[in-house]
Amino acid sequence: MIRRAGVWLSLLATIFGWAGTAGAAVQTAVPQLLPLPGPPPAPTTPAPLAPPINPGYVAAPPSGLSPILTQPGPVYELPQPPNAPYPPPQLPGPIDQQKLQSYRNYLRAQQWQMQSQGISPATPRSREIQQQLNPPDWQ
I need a labelling partner for 55 at 20 to 30 A (CA). Which of 2, 45, 92, 115 fits? Predict the structure, then answer.
């Protein structure tokens, strides 16, 4: 039994000894992440400049200012468009006349719709439309 214990102890020592050397090898194989001390890096951007200073108002030239600056308006006259050689388009008639024509067209459309639906011209609405389309002459 003692012999077996010795074998086991030597086997364990071998395993642990090998693990210890493997761990040491891994620790030394890790690269160093911290920078080495040395001179500071050179600046990559130039130093900031002071803001410009306002020199004040500029003196007027001795010959005076240009008339373009002192006189408002165009320097030269713009050409006028020529008059049209044709008269302006005439409207179809006075506004009241246009309204009456529009109402007549509306009544005719209603009359046509009633006829297409087969409604008799003797109905009160058909007679009313006919009277409005054919008013008596007032002379």
Answer: 45
- Residues 108 and 11: their CA atoms lie apart, in Å, by 119
Average pLDDT for 24-52: 72
- For residue 113, give its domain range: 95-133
| Contact in structure between 94 and 82 (CB atoms under 8 Å) | no
**Residue range 67-80: mean pLDDT, rounded:** 76
Tokens for 87, please give them: 């008269």
Residue 88's identity, in one-letter code, is P
State the total domains in the chain. 1
DSSP string computed for 43-82 = PSSPPPPPPP----PPPPPTT---HHHHS-S-SSPPPPPP
Instruction: In whole angstroms, give the CA distance from residue 24 to residue 18.
Output: 10
Instruction: Determine, yes or no, domain membership for 106.
Output: yes
CB 126 within 8 A of CB 117: no
Which residues have C-beta within 8 Å of that of residue 48, sequence separation ≥ 6? none
